Amino acid sequence: MLRFDHELLARVRTELNLTQEAAAAAAGVDVRTYRRYESGAVNEAAEGFVVRNASRRRLLGALSRELGIAESELVIAEAPRVEEAPSGWRPCHAHTLPRARHFVGREEALALLRAPTRGVIAVVAIGGAGKTALVERFVAELGEGPLAGGLLVWSFYDDTRVEAFFAAATKYFAGGAEVPAGERPQALQEALGAGPPHVVVLDGLEVLQGSGLDDSTYGRVGDGSLRRLLMSAARGLGAARVVLTTRFEPSDLQAWDGAGLTTLRLGGLSPAEGSTLLERWGLAAGTSLRPLVEKVGGHALSVAMLGSYAGTFLDGDGARAQAIALEPAARDDLQARRLLAVLAAYARALAPEERDLVARLALFPAGAEVELLARLAAAGGAVAGALAGLEAAQIGPIVARLERLGLVARAAPRRYTAHPFVAEYFRSLLAGPPAAIHEVEREHLIARLDVHGPGPHAEARLDTYEALLMHTLRAGRTGEAASIYFRSLGGFSHLGLQLGAMSRGARIVRAFAEDGDPGRMTAGLERGRRARLVYDWGLYAGALGDLAQAGRCYRIHGALVREAGNLEGLTTSLRALAYTERLAGALTEALQLCEAAAEVAIRAEAPGDAARALALRARVLHDLGRVEAAEAGFAEARALGDRPFARRSFWAAEHALGLGRVAAAQAEIEGNLAGLHEPRLGGPPRARGDDPRRAGAGRRGARSGPRRRPPRARAHVDHRDRRGRGGAALPRPGGADLPGRAALRRRGAGDPQRPGAGRDLRLRSVRRRFQ
Q1: What pLDDT is recorded for position 579?
Q2: What is the mean pLDDT of residues 65-85?
Q3: Could you give the CA distance from residue 693 to residue 699 in angstroms, rounded to a whole number?
Q4: What is the distance between the alpha carbons of residues 591 and 701, in angstroms, rounded to a whole number?
Q5: How far apart are CA 205 and CA 222, in angstroms?
Q6: Per-residue model confidence as pLDDT tens digits over 105-130
Q7: Are the CB atoms for 513 and 557 separated by under 8 Å?
Q8: C-alpha separations of 294 from 291, 335, 422 in Å
Q9: Is the dihedral of CA 100, 414, 451, 707 positive or negative?
């Protein structure tokens, strides 16, 4: 039996210092095909490697020729061997799920999780019902392997970064293969669908779902890439299954309910189960504990907190626990009211340093290390509270005792977290303003980003900058937080276009809005910055596939720039909205928006913006089947002096190809590709007031590479000179000699030589669109 030696291929590529993309290009294949060879996916279990067709033979020849490997080395004979027990998969615990100190009951739920099913199992319940504890028990039963399939455990409570999840999951399930960020969702789906019974555990999905409030869709996963993964899993990805916990029904998956989706709705503990749990926390057995369980409705966290409190401070006396008043708080959720009453009694019984420690830990949703708590203690005053003067060695035993009491959980060897309900109550006990606490951590992160030091890895540096931005925002320094986003992180131009970090960018700009609503961007920023943030939000949302959110952001942006009288900003907003409506299939609406964008650009005397709007209008006309009007539209855009570039050039090429003009389309594409390789200054322009030193974020920011790059600058100068010598004088911004400005005047006045002259693109509709 023949076998393709994929390990040799990977080793040689690495020795040649080639990326997978470069190797694929050299061999003349797409990168996905190449990855199948390097991962060994072309070796079939029963037949090994079989050269079925001429294309596979040609590819072998190309790999041999380009990488210097003989075909006889790439395709080797493998002697039959006695089948050995497979080594199997070792679980990957990206996050450690908090373990309930005492776990009782839930046998039916565990049986469902143990069954070898495929698709998606959604464990749905209110907060504190024991969702995480149930899934943690299931994961623990699987052991440390080897397993027949992979097991990845991820908690969105600990890390809300969807892009980090895809990075970890792809690296694990795809065998450590190097996959660019933009291709990870697809690569993960392919790896999960390869056949083994893989299991992906996602805890706390509700942090990424809509709550149904503030125009959000109940249960909808906000991130498009994650939403598509879950839908694919529900349809079926080999033998893989996804186990998720959430407070909200996964509405994106309802079409597969009862088929690819199994919903496990977790209720309260039965009186018998609750009584057993109270006994394990130290309450005296033999007495009737059912009234206590019924008093808190069998709510798992409430029963545990009640048992821990009574067992620790009431000598296990159930009768004394009955005296706790369970409804002092005005909450809509009855279970929450009862739990808060238990927590209030608990807080009064704790030592001051224990109470203040939980209150400070509650400010960090993803948890906090002992060292962070020690930094707060060293700050003194209201920041430290009763922790003042304590060092890490003294704080460690305190937090360990709180863990034994069930008030906090260990998320990592030195990091602890609190359940959201517990955190919500103890945050209310803070004596000082939370902003002062975040200020301490902000200063610590700035020190980590000291540009005189070597600095962390690029991805870790981005994480540090994001953490710095969040603490800066929570410290009340809204303007400085915006400067970190625009300048240090580079805004969408860097995070989105260069890094492809769409989920990270969307998460960051969302933090500037109250309750995650783009219509309620923080009033602490001037209108221009609010407009830039919400526009970037639209770009991220569109890239993630959420066209409705993108359209909403562009409309809000349009209203802000219109109020400011910024016509260039308005034409940009109209054009972005038109492009989004085209993607959504609303072609008539898109056409009207293009015409409005062009008219605004004409009034602003912005020929570049006008050309972009007219080119998009021509593409929409082509979509509508009005090819003659589209032809005239592309010509009109060129008449403004526009050189079709990037997307506009592709539109023109698609139009020509649709008319059968293959040579013209090819020439358009070749010219476009040449233009894309011309040197251009990277990164977004510096915005006024976005000096990173004012934000205390260091001089370099999260963008890699030194600032001074004389060779690259020289390349730009040389390129400019070549273009200048090759034709007319280079246009000057604002100059009267711009050919596009003259064309704009003719168009605005109704040029009789222009197709469609005298057309009235009225702006009254623009005002209505953004009100």
Answers
A1: 94
A2: 68
A3: 6
A4: 40
A5: 10
A6: 899 999 999 998 899 999 999 888 89
A7: no
A8: 5, 11, 21
A9: negative
